[in-house]
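Hi, here's the filled form for the chain we discussed.

Project: internal
Contact: R.S.
Residues: 101
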Amino acid sequence: MESFNTLIEAIQAYKEEGYTEDFNLQENCMVCSNGKYKLKAGDFVIDKHYRFEDNTDPSDQAIIYAISSDKYDVKGILVNAYGIYSDDMASEMIEALSGRK
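And the returned structure, exactly as it came back:
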């Protein structure tokens, strides 16, 4: 199992593995390549993830996803907070991200 001390360390490691796109969440999709691709819940898979937890500061709680899409031939990362700081999104996206491997 992977272990990272910081989010920056995890981002760098995933980028070195070819996850070069930066995904951004929208309500019902993820976008990358300056909006060129809009991935819906069925368009991608979660290859791996790592969760950062800080019991003293909830703002330091985040999860990084390594995501790939055969449909668009892209690999990238998504960083999202969880708990009270998580982004609002459609239930399909929540299910797709929760169903990670």
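Let me know if anything looks off before we file it.
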